[in-house]
Every structure is written in C-alpha cells, then in structure tokens.
Amino acid sequence: MSDYYADKLSAERLKRCYEIASPRVQQYMEAEIEFVLEKIRPSDIVLDLGCGYGRVLARLAKKVQRVVGIDASFASLALAQDELRGFSNCYLAAMDAVQLGFHDKVFDVVVGIQNGISAFHVNQKDLIRESIRVAKQGGIVLFSSYSEKFWNARLEWFERQSEAGLLGEIDYEKTRDGVIVCKDGFTATTVRPDEFLSLTSDLNAETRIIEVDESSLFCEIIPR
Question: Where are the domains of the chain?
C-alpha cells in the first residue's frame, strides 16, 4: 500500500486531493495544523513524517528554527522542493519512517498528522517507537487519526477523490467502521483511542489522547 502513495497518489495528484476537499474537510486540515503549531516553539527542530508535497512543512517552517520533511515518494519530494524554495530552514529527504536515518534524540517535535499512522501501512508500534527514538527527552511526538464524529465528512471527501479519478471506486460493502476500501486495493483505516493507548502502553513515554475539532484524534507522546 505504501507504493500507492509513491506511485499512484503522489505529487500533483496528492495535491489535487486537498484542493477538491469540502469546506468541512478544509476546516479539519486547518485545525490539525493549528493544533501542531500551538505545541511548537521558535527554537524547535521539527520532523514531519510523510511530508508529501510540503503542505504542512510550509506552515511549520514559518515558526520553527528548522524543519525536516521525509517521504517515500520521490515525485512528491520533488514538488515539495519546488513549493518550498523560499524557505532556507526546510530540508527534505527520501526515507522510511520506521527506519529513520537520524541519530537518537535529535528533534524537539516529531509530527505524523493526517492519519499518517494508518496511511503509511507500516507496523504502527515500530513507527511510534522509531519516532520516540529520534525525539529529545521531554520533546513531543504527535500522531493523528480521524475522530469517529468525522466519518460522514471523511467518506464524502474520499468519494470526491474517487470521482476525480484519484482513487479507485469505493467498495461500499467493505467500507464501514472507520475503514474506507476502494476496489483497486486502496484501504484507509483509523486508530481509535484504545488502540493508541495499547500501542504506547509499554513504551518509556507519557501518552495523552486529545480530540480536535470533532475531526482529528491526536495521540500526544512525551518521551521520558
């Protein structure tokens, strides 16, 4: 499934997904970014996991000392480089989120929003553990998924993407309980509060679950 974002839903096609979003989905995306911005300081060094074409990076770069964006799609990174050419404090790298090429305790904040914990289709516990590894003691790791309250708006957004030819036809027989399935093999899942807590229960970190805008479910992790 990671190849789906690298090959079929990258760069301009990924950007188009956000451009056709409804006002309610646009509100959700803005609320996520604002929540992250409230958590960071001007002196911070921030890592954005799954940065895509740089949609969130541009906002982060305006506030922090340095921001690094990683993604598995070379096409998306190429577009991000073009979109972010005005920012000297923004760096990009092609990298696997569960095998980060950074030393321990480098970043003040590690961010994986827009349901990246599900969209990456990797071992979620390994993803969280690796994110904690590169975060400073007392830093913050932020992952978000979708709130159950956002299901209708989320499904309508994916329907728009399908109708635009960005995703395959939605399989409504399999689409339910927070999971959206397309007939071309694309699957979008979610992580519930109890699942976030289970994923972090035996890690050396404090965990807090916060709902934002009745659309996002954030897992805030503070490494000890």
Answer: 2-223
List, for residues 37-87, the tens digit of each pLDDT value: 999 999 999 999 999 999 999 999 999 999 999 999 999 999 999 999 999
Q: State the fold for domain 2-223.
A: Rossmann fold (3.40.50)
CB 152 within 8 A of CB 214: no
Quote the tokens at residue 74: 């070379």
In the chain, at which residue ranges do the beta strands (DSSP E only) sit? 45-49, 66-71, 90-94, 107-112, 135-146, 180-181, 187-188, 205-212, 216-223
Distance between CA atoms of 209 and 16, rounded to whole angstroms? 30
How much is the pTM?
0.95
Helix and strand element counts for the chain (H, E): 9, 9
Cα 187 from Cα 9, distance rounded (Å)? 13
